[in-house]
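Repro:
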Amino acid sequence: MNESNAVGALRAPRRSGEALVEPPLDAIGGLLGRNAAAATSTAMGCVDLGGRSLAELSRMARAQMLGEAVRYTRQYRDVAEIPPQPPRLILAGHQPELFHPGVWFKNFVLDRIARQHEAVAVNLVVDHDTCRRASVRVPTGSAEQPTVETVEFDAAAFHTSSFTSASFTSAAAVPWEDRAIADIDTFRSFGKRAGELLRPLVAEPLLGALWPLAIEAADRGATLGESLAQARHALEGQIGLETLEVPLSRLCRGEAFAWFAAWLLAEAPRVRQVYNDAVRDYRQANRVRSASHPVPDLADDGEYCESPLWVWSRSNPRRRHAFVARRRGGLTLSDREGWSCDVPAIDAGSARAAVERLLALDGEGVRLRPRALTTTWYARVVLGDLFVHGIGGAKYDEVTDRIIAKLFGIAPPAYLTATATLHLPVVHAADAEGRLRAARKRRRDLRFHAETLIRDGDERWRDVVSAKRACVDAFRRAAELPWQREAARERHLAVVRANASFAPWADEELHALEADEARLAEQLRVEQVLESREYAFCFFPRDAVVPRLLALADGGV
Protein backbone atom coordinates (compact mmCIF):
# COMPACT_ATOMS: atom_id res chain seq x y z
CA MET A 1 0.00 0.00 0.00
CA ASN A 2 1.31 3.44 -0.89
CA GLU A 3 2.44 5.09 2.33
CA SER A 4 1.12 8.48 1.27
CA ASN A 5 -2.46 7.55 0.48
CA ALA A 6 -5.44 6.06 2.26
CA VAL A 7 -6.83 5.21 -1.15
CA GLY A 8 -10.12 3.70 -0.07
CA ALA A 9 -11.14 7.01 1.54
CA LEU A 10 -10.39 9.21 -1.47
CA ARG A 11 -13.41 10.97 -2.97
CA ALA A 12 -13.67 13.70 -5.56
CA PRO A 13 -14.85 16.98 -3.99
CA ARG A 14 -18.59 17.60 -4.37
CA ARG A 15 -18.46 21.39 -4.15
CA SER A 16 -17.33 23.44 -7.11
CA GLY A 17 -13.93 25.07 -6.77
CA GLU A 18 -12.51 22.49 -4.36
CA ALA A 19 -9.60 20.11 -4.89
CA LEU A 20 -8.22 16.91 -3.44
CA VAL A 21 -4.44 16.63 -3.21
CA GLU A 22 -3.13 13.68 -1.21
CA PRO A 23 -0.60 13.79 0.36
CA PRO A 24 -0.72 17.57 0.89
CA LEU A 25 1.57 19.69 -1.25
CA ASP A 26 3.75 20.66 1.72
CA ALA A 27 4.68 16.98 2.14
CA ILE A 28 5.89 16.55 -1.45
CA GLY A 29 9.49 17.52 -0.73
CA GLY A 30 10.05 14.65 1.69
CA LEU A 31 8.16 12.21 -0.48
CA LEU A 32 10.21 13.17 -3.54
CA GLY A 33 13.44 12.78 -1.61
CA ARG A 34 12.53 9.28 -0.45
CA ASN A 35 11.46 8.21 -3.94
CA ALA A 36 14.63 9.61 -5.52
CA ALA A 37 16.82 7.90 -2.95
CA ALA A 38 15.05 4.60 -3.57
CA ALA A 39 15.60 4.95 -7.33
CA THR A 40 19.38 4.89 -6.83
CA SER A 41 19.38 2.36 -4.01
CA THR A 42 21.26 -0.91 -3.86
CA ALA A 43 17.93 -2.74 -4.13
CA MET A 44 17.27 -1.25 -7.57
CA GLY A 45 20.78 -2.17 -8.65
CA CYS A 46 20.25 -5.78 -7.61
CA VAL A 47 17.13 -6.40 -9.72
CA ASP A 48 18.33 -8.06 -12.93
CA LEU A 49 16.26 -7.60 -16.09
CA GLY A 50 17.96 -9.74 -18.67
CA GLY A 51 21.47 -8.42 -18.16
CA ARG A 52 20.57 -4.89 -17.08
CA SER A 53 19.77 -3.84 -13.56
CA LEU A 54 16.51 -2.04 -12.86
CA ALA A 55 18.56 1.04 -11.97
CA GLU A 56 20.42 0.92 -15.31
CA LEU A 57 17.19 0.44 -17.23
CA SER A 58 15.67 3.40 -15.40
CA ARG A 59 18.58 5.67 -16.36
CA MET A 60 18.29 4.60 -20.00
CA ALA A 61 14.50 5.03 -20.05
CA ARG A 62 14.63 8.48 -18.47
CA ALA A 63 17.19 9.74 -20.95
CA GLN A 64 15.18 8.39 -23.87
CA MET A 65 11.95 9.86 -22.49
CA LEU A 66 13.44 13.33 -22.06
CA GLY A 67 14.89 13.29 -25.55
CA GLU A 68 11.60 12.19 -27.10
CA ALA A 69 9.59 14.64 -25.01
CA VAL A 70 11.73 17.59 -26.08
CA ARG A 71 11.61 16.61 -29.76
CA TYR A 72 7.86 16.00 -29.67
CA THR A 73 6.95 19.17 -27.75
CA ARG A 74 9.09 21.37 -30.00
CA GLN A 75 6.80 20.47 -32.91
CA TYR A 76 4.15 22.88 -31.63
CA ARG A 77 5.48 25.05 -28.76
CA ASP A 78 8.67 26.47 -27.31
CA VAL A 79 10.66 24.36 -24.87
CA ALA A 80 12.84 25.76 -22.12
CA GLU A 81 16.38 24.45 -21.76
CA ILE A 82 16.47 21.06 -20.05
CA PRO A 83 19.48 20.30 -17.84
CA PRO A 84 21.48 17.33 -19.17
CA GLN A 85 20.99 15.53 -15.87
CA PRO A 86 17.70 16.77 -14.39
CA PRO A 87 17.64 16.11 -10.67
CA ARG A 88 14.09 14.78 -10.63
CA LEU A 89 11.30 13.82 -13.02
CA ILE A 90 7.62 14.38 -12.15
CA LEU A 91 5.09 12.53 -14.32
CA ALA A 92 1.38 12.39 -14.97
CA GLY A 93 -0.59 10.88 -17.80
CA HIS A 94 -3.97 10.53 -19.45
CA GLN A 95 -5.63 9.56 -22.70
CA PRO A 96 -5.70 12.32 -25.38
CA GLU A 97 -9.32 13.24 -24.69
CA LEU A 98 -11.32 16.40 -24.08
CA PHE A 99 -11.36 15.62 -20.38
CA HIS A 100 -12.99 17.51 -17.51
CA PRO A 101 -11.25 20.15 -15.33
CA GLY A 102 -10.60 17.60 -12.57
CA VAL A 103 -8.29 15.70 -14.90
CA TRP A 104 -6.77 18.89 -16.28
CA PHE A 105 -5.93 19.91 -12.72
CA LYS A 106 -3.21 17.23 -12.65
CA ASN A 107 -1.26 19.16 -15.28
CA PHE A 108 -1.39 22.31 -13.16
CA VAL A 109 -0.16 20.34 -10.13
CA LEU A 110 2.56 18.77 -12.29
CA ASP A 111 3.82 22.22 -13.29
CA ARG A 112 3.75 23.60 -9.76
CA ILE A 113 5.59 20.67 -8.17
CA ALA A 114 8.28 20.78 -10.83
CA ARG A 115 8.79 24.53 -10.28
CA GLN A 116 8.90 24.24 -6.50
CA HIS A 117 11.32 21.31 -6.46
CA GLU A 118 13.54 22.15 -9.46
CA ALA A 119 12.33 19.12 -11.36
CA VAL A 120 11.29 18.45 -14.94
CA ALA A 121 7.59 17.74 -15.53
CA VAL A 122 6.51 15.33 -18.27
CA ASN A 123 2.91 14.47 -19.11
CA LEU A 124 2.51 11.09 -20.81
CA VAL A 125 -0.12 10.97 -23.54
CA VAL A 126 -1.59 7.48 -23.13
CA ASP A 127 -2.28 6.91 -26.80
CA HIS A 128 -2.22 3.11 -26.75
CA ASP A 129 -5.60 3.17 -25.02
CA THR A 130 -8.63 2.87 -27.30
CA CYS A 131 -10.54 5.81 -28.71
CA ARG A 132 -13.92 5.00 -27.19
CA ARG A 133 -15.84 7.75 -28.94
CA ALA A 134 -15.25 10.69 -31.26
CA SER A 135 -17.84 12.89 -29.55
CA VAL A 136 -18.47 14.80 -26.33
CA ARG A 137 -21.52 15.83 -24.32
CA VAL A 138 -22.25 19.54 -24.69
CA PRO A 139 -24.59 21.39 -22.29
CA THR A 140 -27.03 23.74 -23.99
CA GLY A 141 -30.45 25.35 -23.55
CA SER A 142 -31.13 27.89 -20.81
CA ALA A 143 -30.32 28.02 -17.12
CA GLU A 144 -33.98 27.23 -16.44
CA GLN A 145 -34.28 24.41 -19.00
CA PRO A 146 -30.79 23.03 -19.75
CA THR A 147 -30.22 19.95 -21.89
CA VAL A 148 -27.22 17.98 -23.06
CA GLU A 149 -26.42 17.07 -26.66
CA THR A 150 -23.77 14.70 -28.02
CA VAL A 151 -21.60 16.41 -30.61
CA GLU A 152 -19.08 14.63 -32.84
CA PHE A 153 -15.61 16.07 -33.37
CA ASP A 154 -14.91 13.35 -35.94
CA ALA A 155 -16.80 10.64 -37.78
CA ALA A 156 -17.64 7.62 -35.64
CA ALA A 157 -15.79 5.26 -38.01
CA PHE A 158 -12.80 5.69 -40.25
CA HIS A 159 -11.59 4.13 -43.47
CA THR A 160 -8.72 1.68 -43.21
CA SER A 161 -7.91 1.28 -46.90
CA SER A 162 -4.41 2.69 -46.30
CA PHE A 163 -3.74 -0.23 -43.98
CA THR A 164 -5.37 -3.17 -45.73
CA SER A 165 -8.32 -3.96 -47.97
CA ALA A 166 -10.93 -1.20 -47.98
CA SER A 167 -13.12 -1.36 -44.88
CA PHE A 168 -14.51 0.81 -42.13
CA THR A 169 -13.38 0.42 -38.56
CA SER A 170 -15.25 1.54 -35.47
CA ALA A 171 -13.44 4.28 -33.58
CA ALA A 172 -14.19 2.45 -30.34
CA ALA A 173 -12.04 -0.48 -31.47
CA VAL A 174 -8.95 1.52 -32.44
CA PRO A 175 -6.13 2.80 -30.21
CA TRP A 176 -5.56 6.55 -30.32
CA GLU A 177 -2.09 5.89 -31.70
CA ASP A 178 -3.54 4.63 -34.99
CA ARG A 179 -6.75 6.70 -35.03
CA ALA A 180 -6.48 9.07 -37.98
CA ILE A 181 -8.93 11.93 -38.46
CA ALA A 182 -11.71 10.40 -40.54
CA ASP A 183 -13.69 13.48 -41.55
CA ILE A 184 -11.66 16.68 -41.56
CA ASP A 185 -14.76 18.80 -42.20
CA THR A 186 -16.45 17.42 -39.09
CA PHE A 187 -13.24 18.03 -37.15
CA ARG A 188 -12.80 21.60 -38.38
CA SER A 189 -16.42 22.56 -37.70
CA PHE A 190 -16.58 21.13 -34.18
CA GLY A 191 -15.52 24.36 -32.49
CA LYS A 192 -18.25 26.34 -34.23
CA ARG A 193 -20.96 23.71 -33.69
CA ALA A 194 -20.18 23.11 -30.03
CA GLY A 195 -19.71 26.83 -29.38
CA GLU A 196 -23.15 27.65 -30.75
CA LEU A 197 -24.73 25.09 -28.44
CA LEU A 198 -22.78 26.39 -25.45
CA ARG A 199 -23.44 30.08 -26.09
CA PRO A 200 -26.73 30.41 -24.11
CA LEU A 201 -24.90 29.10 -21.03
CA VAL A 202 -21.25 30.04 -21.64
CA ALA A 203 -20.67 33.00 -23.94
CA GLU A 204 -16.88 32.72 -24.35
CA PRO A 205 -15.60 29.21 -23.57
CA LEU A 206 -11.94 28.19 -23.82
CA LEU A 207 -13.03 26.20 -26.85
CA GLY A 208 -12.61 29.37 -28.91
CA ALA A 209 -8.88 29.43 -28.12
CA LEU A 210 -8.37 25.65 -28.14
CA TRP A 211 -9.94 24.55 -31.39
CA PRO A 212 -7.87 26.68 -33.80
CA LEU A 213 -4.82 25.04 -32.19
CA ALA A 214 -6.36 21.62 -32.81
CA ILE A 215 -6.93 22.48 -36.47
CA GLU A 216 -3.31 23.66 -36.76
CA ALA A 217 -2.14 20.29 -35.38
CA ALA A 218 -4.36 18.42 -37.83
CA ASP A 219 -2.92 20.50 -40.67
CA ARG A 220 0.56 19.38 -39.56
CA GLY A 221 -0.56 15.79 -40.12
CA ALA A 222 -1.24 14.89 -36.49
CA THR A 223 -3.52 11.99 -35.64
CA LEU A 224 -6.85 12.62 -33.95
CA GLY A 225 -5.41 12.10 -30.47
CA GLU A 226 -2.29 14.13 -31.19
CA SER A 227 -4.42 17.01 -32.49
CA LEU A 228 -6.43 17.12 -29.26
CA ALA A 229 -3.41 16.71 -26.97
CA GLN A 230 -1.14 19.15 -28.81
CA ALA A 231 -3.86 21.80 -28.84
CA ARG A 232 -4.42 21.44 -25.12
CA HIS A 233 -0.68 21.45 -24.37
CA ALA A 234 -0.13 24.51 -26.59
CA LEU A 235 -2.89 26.27 -24.67
CA GLU A 236 -1.18 25.32 -21.41
CA GLY A 237 1.95 26.99 -22.74
CA GLN A 238 -0.02 30.19 -23.31
CA ILE A 239 -1.30 29.94 -19.74
CA GLY A 240 2.28 29.62 -18.49
CA LEU A 241 2.59 25.94 -17.59
CA GLU A 242 6.13 24.69 -18.24
CA THR A 243 5.77 20.98 -18.90
CA LEU A 244 6.86 18.56 -21.57
CA GLU A 245 4.64 15.96 -23.22
CA VAL A 246 5.27 12.76 -25.11
CA PRO A 247 2.97 10.00 -26.39
CA LEU A 248 3.69 6.68 -24.71
CA SER A 249 3.73 5.05 -28.13
CA ARG A 250 6.99 6.87 -28.86
CA LEU A 251 8.58 5.55 -25.68
CA CYS A 252 7.39 2.03 -26.50
CA ARG A 253 9.38 2.16 -29.75
CA GLY A 254 12.59 2.76 -27.81
CA GLU A 255 15.21 0.37 -26.50
CA ALA A 256 14.36 0.83 -22.82
CA PHE A 257 10.77 -0.36 -23.17
CA ALA A 258 11.81 -3.16 -25.55
CA TRP A 259 14.22 -4.38 -22.88
CA PHE A 260 11.50 -4.23 -20.26
CA ALA A 261 9.05 -6.08 -22.55
CA ALA A 262 11.63 -8.76 -23.39
CA TRP A 263 12.10 -9.42 -19.68
CA LEU A 264 8.31 -9.56 -19.14
CA LEU A 265 8.00 -12.17 -21.89
CA ALA A 266 10.94 -14.23 -20.65
CA GLU A 267 9.52 -14.19 -17.11
CA ALA A 268 5.89 -14.59 -18.21
CA PRO A 269 4.91 -17.45 -15.83
CA ARG A 270 6.28 -15.64 -12.76
CA VAL A 271 4.88 -12.29 -13.87
CA ARG A 272 1.47 -13.90 -14.39
CA GLN A 273 1.51 -15.44 -10.91
CA VAL A 274 2.49 -12.20 -9.18
CA TYR A 275 0.00 -10.21 -11.25
CA ASN A 276 -2.92 -12.55 -10.55
CA ASP A 277 -2.10 -12.80 -6.84
CA ALA A 278 -2.09 -9.00 -6.56
CA VAL A 279 -5.41 -8.69 -8.41
CA ARG A 280 -7.02 -11.36 -6.21
CA ASP A 281 -5.68 -9.71 -3.03
CA TYR A 282 -7.30 -6.48 -4.21
CA ARG A 283 -10.63 -8.19 -4.83
CA GLN A 284 -10.56 -9.81 -1.41
CA ALA A 285 -9.56 -6.63 0.41
CA ASN A 286 -12.23 -4.58 -1.39
CA ARG A 287 -14.89 -7.34 -1.43
CA VAL A 288 -15.04 -7.34 -5.22
CA ARG A 289 -16.81 -10.33 -6.74
CA SER A 290 -16.42 -9.49 -10.43
CA ALA A 291 -13.74 -11.54 -12.17
CA SER A 292 -13.07 -8.62 -14.53
CA HIS A 293 -12.53 -5.94 -11.88
CA PRO A 294 -10.19 -4.15 -11.51
CA VAL A 295 -8.70 -6.18 -14.40
CA PRO A 296 -9.12 -9.81 -15.53
CA ASP A 297 -6.63 -12.43 -14.42
CA LEU A 298 -3.90 -13.37 -16.89
CA ALA A 299 -4.60 -16.76 -18.49
CA ASP A 300 -2.45 -19.86 -18.94
CA ASP A 301 -3.48 -22.93 -20.96
CA GLY A 302 -0.35 -24.96 -20.31
CA GLU A 303 1.33 -23.95 -23.56
CA TYR A 304 0.72 -20.22 -23.84
CA CYS A 305 0.96 -17.84 -20.89
CA GLU A 306 -0.73 -14.47 -21.12
CA SER A 307 1.48 -11.42 -20.67
CA PRO A 308 0.32 -8.00 -19.38
CA LEU A 309 0.87 -6.49 -22.84
CA TRP A 310 -1.30 -5.57 -25.84
CA VAL A 311 -0.53 -6.43 -29.43
CA TRP A 312 -2.16 -5.22 -32.65
CA SER A 313 -1.19 -4.25 -36.17
CA ARG A 314 -1.92 -1.39 -38.52
CA SER A 315 -3.74 -3.85 -40.77
CA ASN A 316 -5.92 -4.95 -37.84
CA PRO A 317 -5.94 -2.06 -35.32
CA ARG A 318 -7.88 -3.90 -32.63
CA ARG A 319 -6.00 -4.53 -29.39
CA ARG A 320 -5.45 -8.21 -28.60
CA HIS A 321 -3.96 -9.96 -25.61
CA ALA A 322 -0.31 -10.97 -25.98
CA PHE A 323 0.58 -14.59 -25.20
CA VAL A 324 4.00 -16.20 -25.00
CA ALA A 325 5.08 -19.84 -25.26
CA ARG A 326 8.51 -21.32 -24.58
CA ARG A 327 10.12 -23.00 -27.56
CA ARG A 328 13.48 -24.65 -28.04
CA GLY A 329 15.92 -21.81 -28.45
CA GLY A 330 13.50 -19.04 -27.64
CA LEU A 331 9.92 -17.83 -27.29
CA THR A 332 6.87 -17.49 -29.50
CA LEU A 333 4.86 -14.31 -29.09
CA SER A 334 1.27 -14.60 -30.35
CA ASP A 335 -2.17 -13.03 -30.21
CA ARG A 336 -3.75 -16.51 -30.51
CA GLU A 337 -5.74 -15.16 -33.46
CA GLY A 338 -3.38 -15.94 -36.30
CA TRP A 339 -0.39 -13.65 -35.70
CA SER A 340 2.85 -14.82 -34.09
CA CYS A 341 6.57 -14.17 -34.15
CA ASP A 342 9.62 -15.90 -32.71
CA VAL A 343 11.66 -14.07 -30.09
CA PRO A 344 15.19 -15.19 -29.13
CA ALA A 345 15.71 -16.34 -25.58
CA ILE A 346 17.72 -14.34 -23.06
CA ASP A 347 21.08 -15.87 -23.87
CA ALA A 348 24.12 -15.78 -21.58
CA GLY A 349 22.27 -13.43 -19.27
CA SER A 350 21.59 -10.83 -21.97
CA ALA A 351 18.27 -9.92 -23.57
CA ARG A 352 19.98 -8.07 -26.45
CA ALA A 353 18.81 -10.42 -29.23
CA ALA A 354 15.23 -10.41 -27.92
CA VAL A 355 15.31 -6.62 -27.65
CA GLU A 356 16.43 -6.26 -31.26
CA ARG A 357 13.57 -8.50 -32.40
CA LEU A 358 10.98 -6.51 -30.45
CA LEU A 359 12.38 -3.21 -31.74
CA ALA A 360 11.80 -4.44 -35.28
CA LEU A 361 8.07 -5.02 -34.72
CA ASP A 362 7.01 -1.41 -35.24
CA GLY A 363 8.74 -1.37 -38.60
CA GLU A 364 6.61 -4.39 -39.50
CA GLY A 365 3.44 -2.54 -38.53
CA VAL A 366 3.01 -4.43 -35.26
CA ARG A 367 2.44 -2.65 -31.94
CA LEU A 368 3.50 -4.16 -28.61
CA ARG A 369 2.22 -1.95 -25.81
CA PRO A 370 1.72 -2.19 -22.03
CA ARG A 371 -1.69 -2.83 -20.51
CA ALA A 372 -3.08 -0.49 -17.85
CA LEU A 373 -1.33 -1.79 -14.73
CA THR A 374 1.91 -2.40 -16.63
CA THR A 375 1.87 1.19 -17.86
CA THR A 376 1.58 2.46 -14.31
CA TRP A 377 4.27 0.33 -12.73
CA TYR A 378 6.65 1.06 -15.62
CA ALA A 379 6.05 4.80 -15.23
CA ARG A 380 6.41 4.76 -11.45
CA VAL A 381 9.43 2.48 -11.12
CA VAL A 382 11.35 3.10 -14.35
CA LEU A 383 10.47 6.52 -15.77
CA GLY A 384 10.04 9.02 -12.95
CA ASP A 385 10.54 10.05 -9.34
CA LEU A 386 6.89 10.88 -8.68
CA PHE A 387 3.67 10.07 -10.51
CA VAL A 388 0.56 12.24 -10.20
CA HIS A 389 -2.61 10.15 -10.35
CA GLY A 390 -6.29 10.89 -10.46
CA ILE A 391 -8.54 8.99 -8.08
CA GLY A 392 -9.17 6.13 -10.51
CA GLY A 393 -5.49 5.53 -11.13
CA ALA A 394 -4.70 5.79 -7.42
CA LYS A 395 -7.30 3.14 -6.63
CA TYR A 396 -5.82 0.72 -9.16
CA ASP A 397 -2.37 1.33 -7.74
CA GLU A 398 -3.40 -0.70 -4.72
CA VAL A 399 -2.81 -3.56 -7.16
CA THR A 400 0.30 -2.04 -8.70
CA ASP A 401 1.92 -1.56 -5.29
CA ARG A 402 1.56 -5.28 -4.62
CA ILE A 403 2.98 -6.17 -8.04
CA ILE A 404 6.01 -3.89 -7.62
CA ALA A 405 6.80 -5.23 -4.16
CA LYS A 406 6.51 -8.91 -5.13
CA LEU A 407 7.99 -8.73 -8.62
CA PHE A 408 11.03 -6.56 -7.89
CA GLY A 409 11.43 -6.95 -4.14
CA ILE A 410 11.48 -3.18 -3.58
CA ALA A 411 9.24 -0.75 -1.75
CA PRO A 412 6.73 0.78 -4.18
CA PRO A 413 7.46 4.47 -4.86
CA ALA A 414 4.89 6.78 -3.30
CA TYR A 415 2.61 8.71 -5.63
CA LEU A 416 0.38 11.77 -5.50
CA THR A 417 -3.37 11.84 -6.04
CA ALA A 418 -4.90 15.04 -7.38
CA THR A 419 -8.32 15.99 -8.69
CA ALA A 420 -10.68 18.95 -8.56
CA THR A 421 -14.34 19.72 -9.13
CA LEU A 422 -15.58 22.67 -11.14
CA HIS A 423 -19.15 23.39 -12.21
CA LEU A 424 -20.12 25.60 -15.09
CA PRO A 425 -20.49 29.21 -13.84
CA VAL A 426 -24.23 29.35 -14.56
CA VAL A 427 -26.46 30.92 -11.91
CA HIS A 428 -29.32 28.60 -10.96
CA ALA A 429 -31.40 27.50 -7.99
CA ALA A 430 -29.76 24.91 -5.77
CA ASP A 431 -30.42 22.41 -2.96
CA ALA A 432 -33.33 20.62 -4.64
CA GLU A 433 -32.01 17.22 -3.58
CA GLY A 434 -32.43 17.79 0.15
CA ARG A 435 -35.86 19.38 -0.19
CA LEU A 436 -37.04 16.64 -2.53
CA ARG A 437 -35.89 14.00 -0.05
CA ALA A 438 -37.79 15.76 2.76
CA ALA A 439 -40.96 16.08 0.67
CA ARG A 440 -40.88 12.40 -0.26
CA LYS A 441 -40.41 11.39 3.37
CA ARG A 442 -43.31 13.60 4.46
CA ARG A 443 -45.57 12.07 1.79
CA ARG A 444 -44.64 8.52 2.81
CA ASP A 445 -45.31 9.34 6.45
CA LEU A 446 -48.73 10.80 5.63
CA ARG A 447 -49.66 7.71 3.64
CA PHE A 448 -48.35 5.03 5.94
CA HIS A 449 -47.67 6.55 9.36
CA ALA A 450 -50.10 9.44 9.68
CA GLU A 451 -50.78 8.54 13.31
CA THR A 452 -47.23 9.61 14.20
CA LEU A 453 -47.91 13.10 12.80
CA ILE A 454 -51.14 13.68 14.76
CA ARG A 455 -51.24 15.33 18.17
CA ASP A 456 -54.40 15.18 20.29
CA GLY A 457 -54.28 18.92 20.86
CA ASP A 458 -53.98 19.73 17.15
CA GLU A 459 -57.26 21.35 16.09
CA ARG A 460 -56.83 20.18 12.49
CA TRP A 461 -56.97 16.58 13.61
CA ARG A 462 -59.64 16.94 16.35
CA ASP A 463 -62.27 14.91 14.50
CA VAL A 464 -59.90 12.07 13.67
CA VAL A 465 -58.37 11.54 17.10
CA SER A 466 -61.06 9.04 18.13
CA ALA A 467 -60.69 7.19 14.81
CA LYS A 468 -56.97 7.12 15.34
CA ARG A 469 -57.37 5.62 18.79
CA ALA A 470 -59.88 3.05 17.58
CA CYS A 471 -57.62 1.93 14.73
CA VAL A 472 -54.55 1.74 16.94
CA ASP A 473 -56.54 -0.24 19.52
CA ALA A 474 -57.66 -2.62 16.76
CA PHE A 475 -54.08 -3.06 15.67
CA ARG A 476 -52.98 -3.84 19.22
CA ARG A 477 -55.75 -6.39 19.69
CA ALA A 478 -54.73 -8.10 16.46
CA ALA A 479 -51.08 -8.06 17.51
CA GLU A 480 -51.96 -9.87 20.75
CA LEU A 481 -53.56 -12.79 18.92
CA PRO A 482 -51.57 -16.06 18.73
CA TRP A 483 -49.44 -16.39 15.60
CA GLN A 484 -51.65 -17.72 12.85
CA ARG A 485 -52.03 -16.86 9.19
CA GLU A 486 -55.45 -15.38 9.93
CA ALA A 487 -54.01 -13.23 12.74
CA ALA A 488 -51.27 -11.93 10.48
CA ARG A 489 -53.85 -10.98 7.89
CA GLU A 490 -55.91 -9.20 10.54
CA ARG A 491 -52.89 -7.21 11.66
CA HIS A 492 -52.24 -6.17 8.08
CA LEU A 493 -55.85 -5.14 7.55
CA ALA A 494 -55.81 -3.19 10.80
CA VAL A 495 -52.86 -1.15 9.57
CA VAL A 496 -54.53 -0.59 6.20
CA ARG A 497 -57.74 0.59 7.91
CA ALA A 498 -55.75 2.88 10.22
CA ASN A 499 -53.96 4.51 7.31
CA ALA A 500 -57.15 4.80 5.26
CA SER A 501 -59.01 6.46 8.11
CA PHE A 502 -56.71 9.48 7.90
CA ALA A 503 -57.03 9.92 4.13
CA PRO A 504 -59.81 12.60 4.21
CA TRP A 505 -57.64 14.80 6.41
CA ALA A 506 -54.31 14.08 4.67
CA ASP A 507 -55.40 14.26 1.00
CA GLU A 508 -55.03 18.01 0.67
CA GLU A 509 -51.44 18.01 1.93
CA LEU A 510 -50.64 14.88 -0.10
CA HIS A 511 -51.74 16.59 -3.31
CA ALA A 512 -49.65 19.64 -2.45
CA LEU A 513 -46.63 17.44 -1.71
CA GLU A 514 -46.98 15.62 -5.01
CA ALA A 515 -46.96 18.94 -6.85
CA ASP A 516 -43.90 20.04 -4.84
CA GLU A 517 -42.13 16.78 -5.68
CA ALA A 518 -42.72 17.24 -9.41
CA ARG A 519 -41.37 20.79 -9.24
CA LEU A 520 -38.36 19.78 -7.15
CA ALA A 521 -37.63 16.77 -9.38
CA GLU A 522 -37.36 19.11 -12.38
CA GLN A 523 -35.19 21.49 -10.40
CA LEU A 524 -32.97 18.56 -9.42
CA ARG A 525 -32.65 17.58 -13.08
CA VAL A 526 -31.58 21.15 -13.86
CA GLU A 527 -29.00 21.06 -11.06
CA GLN A 528 -27.63 17.71 -12.24
CA VAL A 529 -27.19 19.03 -15.78
CA LEU A 530 -25.55 22.28 -14.72
CA GLU A 531 -23.47 20.84 -11.85
CA SER A 532 -21.93 17.89 -13.65
CA ARG A 533 -18.15 17.81 -13.17
CA GLU A 534 -17.72 15.80 -16.38
CA TYR A 535 -17.94 18.55 -19.01
CA ALA A 536 -14.79 19.15 -21.07
CA PHE A 537 -12.44 21.76 -19.64
CA CYS A 538 -12.69 23.76 -22.86
CA PHE A 539 -16.41 24.39 -22.30
CA PHE A 540 -15.60 26.66 -19.34
CA PRO A 541 -14.76 30.34 -19.70
CA ARG A 542 -11.08 31.02 -19.15
CA ASP A 543 -11.69 33.28 -16.14
CA ALA A 544 -13.74 30.58 -14.41
CA VAL A 545 -11.32 27.70 -14.78
CA VAL A 546 -7.69 28.79 -15.26
CA PRO A 547 -7.27 31.12 -12.23
CA ARG A 548 -9.04 28.62 -9.99
CA LEU A 549 -6.91 25.66 -11.05
CA LEU A 550 -3.75 27.75 -10.70
CA ALA A 551 -4.77 28.77 -7.19
CA LEU A 552 -5.66 25.21 -6.19
CA ALA A 553 -2.34 23.94 -7.55
CA ASP A 554 -0.60 26.54 -5.39
CA GLY A 555 -2.39 25.12 -2.36
CA GLY A 556 -5.24 27.63 -2.38
CA VAL A 557 -8.67 26.85 -0.99
